[in-house]
What we know:
The protein is an alpha+beta fold. Helices cover 19% and strands 33% of the residues. It is built from eight helices and 19 strands. The chain has a six-stranded mixed sheet with strand order 10-11-12-9-3-13. It has a six-stranded antiparallel β-barrel with strand order 14-17-16-15-18-19. A hairpin with a 4-residue loop joins strand 6 and strand 7 (105-109).
Amino acid sequence: MSWVLIDHLGREPEFAPVSGGRVVWQVGAYEDEYRALRSGAALVDLSGSGPLRVRGPGAVDLLNRVLTRDVEFLAPEQAQTALVLDPDGTPADIVVTLCVAALDEYWLHCGPGRDERVAALLSAAGDGAEATVENLRDSMAVFAVEGPTAYRVIGETLGEDYVSLAYESLLPAEVNGEEVLLARIGVTGEYGYTVFVPHAVAVPVWQALADRATVIGYRALETAMLEVRQPVLHRELDEQSTVVSAGLNWLVDLGKPEFTGRDAVLQQCADPASTRLIGFGVRDGRVEAGDELFIGTERVGAVGHIVDSPGFGGQLGLAAVQRHWQASGLEFSTAAGARIRTLAAPYVIPTSWNTPMEV
């Protein structure tokens, strides 16, 4: 873990368990961290879960056996998001595949606490493939800068040439003689950059970024992700969830002839689950995860993920509702009398959508 890098703040953060791992949940006041992300620049430590390095002449073949989207034509220095599934079709992770052409290898940027599960699935599919899989967790830190002024932080830290990097592109940079990798990827709808940093220069890079951005935890990050309907797997999946019921179809290319879990996804499409996830905002009262939802006396679903959203001005959440109730603008109630209204994403408009870069 590289979370010790926040020690210079002079206070102990709050940690939380996520998918068998541990993340920094909150550093300071939640509202301040959220505000930095939506109106300034926020820095979050994503270390502790990969990245996984896949290389060798059979790297593309191995990745295509596992990933739900084809990487054969992924351009050099480009990134692509896909699912990794268990053989039964259960989503194991949402990963970003980076084609690091300068090193003739691929990196998989995994979700918190999910790198070992993804590595195991690659290993299971690797029979006969001329490729190796290595977890770089113990040698590399991963930092993300997101927010409408994130580009300024990157420009002042790495140089203005890196500011205008195209979305889902990556570029090597050098810090103190060590090569780092900058990727233009984000999860909140704001300008987002992710820096992959060898441990040898992790401390000075972190400190340079932290001098220009507000350090935040996963709580504010997950809230902003929900606001733009970016999936947060560990909050949204339960034992009954499938790719289809969780609304993750957009990450699957069923035109691919082979990938782990493909047959299961085809079956899900042919015989879909009775519920779907839909976003909602709370109009009156408060709701909790697990609360049942009704129209009159008819039960229509239940609350899943729920957050307090400063940007929305109240509670936002996801509910699993029967398919014929999956529409925006509907009102449901809980047994305690709280009222919610279903919404179309995004639930909060990111500031960066109306903020041009000024280099």
